[in-house]
Each structure stands twice: as C-alpha cells, then as structure tokens.
Design brief:
The protein is of the alpha/beta class. It has eight helices and nine strands. The strands form two sheets. Strands 1, 2, 3, 7, 8 and 9 form a six-stranded parallel β-sheet that branches. Strands 4-5-6 form a three-stranded antiparallel β-sheet, with helices on one face. The longest helix has 18 residues. It is globular, with a radius of gyration of 17 Å. The two termini are 21 Å apart.
Amino acid sequence: MAALVVSIHDVSPLTQPDCDRMLQDLAEAGVGTTCLLVIPDHHRRAPVAKAPGFQQWLTTLVTQGHEPILHGYYHLRDQRPGETLRDRWTTRLYTAGEGEFYDLDLEQASNRLRRGLTDFGFLPRRFAGFIAPAWLLGKDAKSAVRLCGFRYTTTVHGVENLISGQFLPARSLVWSTRAAWRCWASLRWNEQLERHLRHRELLRIGLHPPDRRYPEIWEQALGIIRRAVRERQPMSYEQVVSSAECRIPGAG
C-alpha cells in the first residue's frame, strides 16, 4: 500500500502547545502516526534537559507510536567570516539563519549529535533518523551523522538510507509563513505539487508549528492529508526505510 509520512518540524518546549494542537487535528484527520523532529536546545532558549514537562509529553507520544527524529541541536547557524554569496543566500535567504549543520566540520557536528543523543536519553527508544535544520547537511556533518549510528536522513527531495546508500525519491510538501508572498507561493506551489505526486508510492508532508496559525495554509494541509489517508497508510520514516530495505534484492 502507498505510504504517507507526516512530519512536524521544530518540536521543542518553545513550540509544544502548537505541536500538541497540530497532533490533535492530525488525529482527527486520520493520522495517528507522525514523525516529530525534536530540537535539544531550540535557539539556545529551550534546553530539553531542563524541561521535565516536555520530556513527559514527548515520552507519551513516542510510547503511542510517534517517531522521534533528532533535528539539529540549536537549530541556529552561527555566521562565519568570509562567507560566499552562495553561502549567504543559502543560510540567510533560503532559511532564516537556521542551517545549523550546513558547514560544521566533523568534530563540531559529532559533538552536537552526541550531546543531542544524551539530552534525549530519557526516551524509551533510540533515534533512527537525523534531519538537519532546513535540510541543509554538509559533507562533513553527514559523515558525522553516519558515524554516530543514525540509520537515515532526509532532504526536501527524498529519504536516504545511510547504511545501504539507497535513496527514495519523494519531494516533500512544505509551507513557508515568513512573509505574505511566501504564504501565497506555498499555497499555489503545493496545489500543483500534490497533483504531480498523487500517484507516487510515498507522499511526504512537512509541517511547522506556525502553519496552524494561518487558516488558509492549515486548511490546505489538512485537506491534502484527508485525501491522502483514503488510499495511503500513515507511516513513520523508520517504517518506510525498513519497508524499502525488505525490497532490496538480497537484503536480510
């Protein structure tokens, strides 16, 4: 059966109320399994290690079957001297300074990954996946992700198995609310993209906490999701990766 993966990005003590309401809406729309992209210390203002209420809330969700995915450490990139025009465009215009893992070296990335794993040690299961903020994962940082034992990562274009190297092409639908023109463009783009992806094996929906505050965006997102669940099975990324591995000749 075709799969649907709904992920909520930027899950942290800062966004917990919005995320909780989103999960309620998603459950009413027929999605009881999601991927929760969690941040250990969101913008250096919300350390999970010091938020027992958030820990309890997240533990309950994971126990219910939602998949936790490590999503950077601070979700914030420090500006660097001597940046190229491409670097500035990618890390400041494409994303608002949040491409944390865009150009970390191996040691820097490894340290943040290990700290993140430690901070979420309270969870009843290990992380299988790491997804970089804004999907910006540099070469050295990607090596660190692999060396730290993560099984997969994703980009806006698909899902990559870090063990086998298998790449599952699946463009993610995602909305931007940073400016009025971005909202308008997101609505028009995703309207067309849904039609293009409707018959693909895997449909990915990427949500951010602010999406719910924009009625037109949230209505469109839920509409796409309600249509999808009629013929797709809501799954986690880990389940999608496991299913794909079973189809690799000679796997297992």
